[in-house]
Automatic annotation (TrEMBL):
Keywords: Aromatic hydrocarbons catabolism, ATP-binding, Coiled coil, Nucleotide-binding, Transcription, Transcription regulation. Residues 56-103 form the PAS domain. Signal peptide: none annotated. This is HTH-type transcriptional regulatory protein TyrR. It comes from the Bacteria. Transmembrane segments: none annotated. GO terms for molecular function: ATP binding; DNA binding. Gene3D superfamilies: 1.10.8.60, Homeodomain-like, P-loop containing nucleotide triphosphate hydrolases, PAS domain. PROSITE patterns: PAC, PAS, SIGMA54_INTERACT_1, SIGMA54_INTERACT_3, SIGMA54_INTERACT_4. SUPFAM superfamilies: Homeodomain-like, P-loop containing nucleoside triphosphate hydrolases, PYP-like sensor domain (PAS domain). The keyword Transcription applies.
């Protein structure tokens, strides 16, 4: 055995020597060349190993990203073998990963889990799409070819998207849009109907003239001054002007000049710059004129406007600009001004309490609202309006009989429509009977003239007349003597009788 090995080694050495002689190189040089080639080969092996490792890392990263997607993903190689799937694909098909990998695409097609899009891409080398149903889910399949650097198709990436939820979402969105359109149409209709209806109630000639004037000035960009006693409905008229104007879809700001303290009114109307004065917020503040820009502003109780601010209001009307407190740069604004007051501004001007030039600027179109006592024929309409309003508010069903209505038409109504509304609301609350009669009115309204009128009415019953007379006499006695004890002798009855009668008639007494 050893002799045979020796023979073989000798033969190998001879062959190597023959090869070396054939190259013309000495042994040392040849060995160096072999070592160098081995190093080059080893470096190439290491580079290939790094590339393979990087590819594996990218593949793993791609699979992790794929698992984070809701869309199902599977990959086939150029022979149609499934090489990778993500979690969403497994959830869609219900087949475990180990059972899928290594299978041919036909295996999935036979089970109707995918379409032939992938095979079509292998054949045509172009993107293909199709639609199928898997487990009652509508699936859109998109297969895309992947090429290497040489332009050779190596893989096909297929994405499966469940559009069932999207379709349901789309249906919900369409229904929501239809519902929104319905609400918008209803809102437009209600706005249109509200605009068409005046807030003013009354058929008297004076109110018809006011209503006609409202419609005339509403469409014209002109300053309006609304005047009238407290409670006649000045704000209602201003609202009607706004609702019928070209600015009805723009801001509408209401300012009660008498309700805001004088030292705050300027900053509320015109705003201020950051840090303009002690106590100012550390930021700019918009004034109400700026907030109302492009719209309408109602300056209610304009007669209460401080004299030093009237010049600034005049500037708004003349120059169409304001300057904030602490600011120097004028700010252009486009605001329609409606003013209202229960005072006689001409008298205010003559007393030096109101600027004459501002009065002329405000009084371009004056609207004078008549007091309720001058249009008593409107009272039944107003009463029915308030009855409906407060019956609905307090969930009751009360009404006023003819005798009570006639009594209401004899009252002076110094508080005008506002007072009438308050009286009707009070009657609805405190009267426990379904029918409100004249006796109830007398108990609520403390007015000698009203009592006298009620007493003179031919349609009063004896009980109603006695109640009116008793109430008036007891009230006069209490006002004169101050207590039921002192009033009783003057009335010729005992103190308990006065106290009982006062309670029955709704008179506060002690």
């Amino acid at each position: 055995m050893e002799n045979n090995t020796l023979v073989l080694d000798t033969m190998a050495k001879n062959q190597i020597c023959q090869l070396i002689e054939g190259t013309g190189l000495d042994v040392s040089t040849l060995i160096k060349q072999i070592i160098k080639e081995n190093e080059t080969y080893r470096n190439r092996i290491e580079d290939m190993s790094k590339d393979l490792k990087s590819y594996k890392e990218r593949e793993l990263e791609a699979l992790l990203i794929g698992d984070a997607l809701y869309d199902g993903i599977y990959v086939i190689d150029k022979t149609g073998i499934i090489t990778a799937v993500n979690k969403a694909f497994i959830e869609m098909t219900g087949i475990v990963e180990s059972e899928i990998l290594g299978q041919g695409l036909e295996w999935l097609i036979e089970r109707k889990l995918v379409t032939e899009s992938g095979l079509l891409v292998l054949k045509e080398k172009e993107k293909a799409s199709s639609v199928t149903v898997i487990n009652n889910q509508k699936i859109v399949i998109t297969a895309s070819p992947i090429f290497n650097e040489l332009g050779e198709l190596t893989q096909v990436l297929t994405i499966m998207r469940d559009v069932t939820g999207l379709r349901k979402l789309q249906d919900k969105l369409e229904n929501s849009e239809k519902l929104t359109k319905k609400y918008v149409d209803e809102l437009k209709y209600l706005r249109k109907r509200e605009s068409a209806q005046s807030g003013l109630i009354g058929r008297s000639l004076s109110m018809s003239q006011v209503r006609q004037l409202i419609y005339q000035v509403a469409q014209v960009e002109v300053t309006v001054l609304i005047t009238g006693e407290t409670g006649v409905g000045k704000e209602v008229v201003a609202n009607d002007i706004y609702k019928n104007s070209l600015r009805k879809d723009s801001p509408y700001i209401k300012v009660n000049c008498a309700a805001i303290p004088e030292n705050l009114l300027e900053s509320e109307l015109f705003g201020y710059e950051k840090g303009a004065f002690t106590g100012a917020q550390n930021k700019d503040k918009l004034g109400l004129f700026e907030i109302a820009n492009s719209g309408t502003i109602l300056l209610d109780e304009i007669g209460e406007m401080p004299f030093n601010l009237q010049s600034k209001i005049l500037r708004v009307l003349q120059e169409k600009e304001i300057t904030r407190i602490g600011g120097f740069k004028p700010i252009k604004i486009d605001v329609r001004v409606i003013a209202a007051t229960n005072q006689n501004l001409e008298e205010q001007v003559s007393k030096g309490m109101f600027r004459q030039d501002l009065y002329y600027r405000l009084n371009v179109v004056p609207i004078q609202i008549p007091p309720l006592r001058s249009r008593l024929e409107d009272i039944p309409l107003l009463v029915n309006h308030f009855l409906h309003k407060y019956n609905e508010k307090y969930k009751v069903n009360k009404y006023i009989n003819n005798s009570a209505m006639e009594v209401l038409q004899q009252y002076d109504w110094p508080g005008n429509v506002r007072e009438l509304g308050n009286i009707i609301e009070r009657l609805i609350i405190v009267i426990n009977e379904p029918v409100i009669d004249s006796d109830h009115i007398v108990k609520i309204v403390d007015n000698e003239k009203l009592a006298a009128v009620c007493f003179d009415k031919n349609n009063l019953t004896l009980k109603e007349a006695v109640s009116i007379l008793e109430r008036q006499m007891i009230m006069n006695a209490l006002q004169t003597y101050g207590s039921t004890h002192k009033a009783a002798p003057s009335l010729g009855v005992s103190q308990p009788t006065v106290l009982r009668k006062a309670k029955e008639l709704g008179i506060m007494a002690k």
